[in-house]
Amino acid sequence: MGRTWIGAILGMLLAFPAWSVEVHEVRLWRAPDHTRIVFDLTGPAEHKLIVLENPSRIVLDVENTSFKAGVDGLKLKGTPVDSLRTGIRQGNDLRVVLELNTVVNPRSFFLKANEQAGDRLVLDLYDKAPQAQAVVTKSVQHSDKRDIIIAIDAGHGGEDPGAIGPNRRREKDIVLAIARELNALLQADKGFRPTMIRTGDYYVSLRGRRELARERQADLFVSIHADAFKRREARGASVYALSTQGATSTAARYLAEKENASDLVGGVTLSDKDDVLAGVLADLSMTSTLDNSLKLGAKVLRHVDTVANLHKNTVEQAGFAVLKSPDIPSILVETGFISNPSESQLLATSAYQKKMARAIHTGIREWFLAHPPSGTLVAWQRQQNGQQYTIARGDTLSGIAERFNVPVSDLKIRNGISGEKIMVGQKLLIPTT
User: Fold this and answer.
1) Within this chain, do residues 91 and 203 fall inside the same structural domain, yes or no?
2) Quick check: 222 and 149 in contact, CB under 8 A?
3) Fewest C-beta atoms under 10 Å: which of 164, 301, 346, 372?
4) Are 33 and 127 in contact (CB under 8 A)?
5) pLDDT tens digits for range 338-383
6) Final residue of a structural domain among 370, 399, 417
């Protein structure tokens, strides 16, 4: 009798497949040139990608895996995917079928679990005919006088939320809002043209962000973040430039390591890894790019100081991969610590986002008005008229003269000033040196 029951139980176990891995969630993001679908797994699994035609379909066969996720909430509108269905083949292998409405170039890869995310199967569907995007280049404008191009990089995006603050506030949402505000301010400036590296909720690799800035021939790359730290009491905004010799503080090193690891969360294959090593860093040390990054960053930091507490009073440096452009001045602005409850609450408000964007904008504008690239409209206007500066609280004539490297006497003559008295809001013309 006992043997009969044991045999029956073994028969039942053999009748039902024993899946070792489950798909517990499916997520989807649309980027300008591709659609990404991520299958969150409970463990590693082998898979095979199959492309079928007439009608167009993508098939994923995943070994020894079951499907426990819901797909009703996937936003397929505006993507090449009409529907997604699943089934079991060969007893315990998962088959995922995507019905397509257009032809795509698919790519799939597996990502191992790391500290921030579990095992994932990633499917990228690249558009055969990418959507037309506004190409921003150093084109001839304003009677052969081009605009200054500012590349605005909102950190993280898509499946990489960045740092998470109280009430599940996500860094990727806050920095995109600030980036959009900065974009609008620069659009209103004659002689400046902004370009957004990330325009929506999708991920761009760290290397891809630099390459987009280079393709668009940017004069400046500014990356916007709102990171977290190990201690909740850590607070304050910061401005960073690249370091070729090591971080200037423990916090700088920690934040750089966290930011550089975002490709692991965003889903970048080994072939996409950054190959910028000693060659580029050596080149950086031999050019003025890093020096300009530090000086421009100091201008931005000075104005950020008017709207936020500073974590450090000087521009810090660390090995941020996103800043490794050898020919484009690049800075990273930490707008605050989203891990700090009070700063997190501030960062989530539209009023603070606008203030921070205005501070970054003022610093960038002030730098380029004083140091415009040759061939730009701003450079031509400066040569013709001299630069205009609006006096802020705490300014002095000697301080303004030192800032713009002009004699106080020339500053007085250019503006018809006989004494030392100046007023907040008063506009000064800075004479050409």
Assistant:
1) no
2) no
3) 164
4) yes
5) 999 999 999 999 999 999 999 999 999 999 988 899 999 988 877 7
6) 370
